[in-house]
Fold:
Amino acid sequence: MSRTLSNTTASRNGKAVEKSLLQYMGLSHEQSPVDSTLEGHPLEIKSCQMQIIDSHNSNHRRSGRIVFEPEQHRYLLEHGGIYAFVVHVNKVVHHTRMIRADLVKLPDFSCNRSVPWPTARGWLS
Structure:
């Protein structure tokens, strides 16, 4: 599978997983910098595949990555927001975690930043 096709599939699967989580939580998608609001706090859902094919890796696989957008992250920080991380395999959820945005350990960044999901899981300990 080409990297472009893999990214397209990941994006489509991510949108489906995010929609399912909003539905499960009884929330609606909002047209704002983030996905929704949970108990008055902005909520951004980030999802990724548990593992993806990566021909540049020696074992041809690697952990999926959560992509952070600087504008969303700043918005969440300024408004006491929350991230929901969802790790799935072909849209079947395997892990979910929620974390306050101020606990996400990212350096200052001005363009999208991706982090392997096991790294994000470590922020919760």
User: Anything to note?
Assistant: The first strand starts at residue 36 and ends at 38. The radius of gyration is 14 Å. Helices lie at 3-25, 70-78, 117-122.
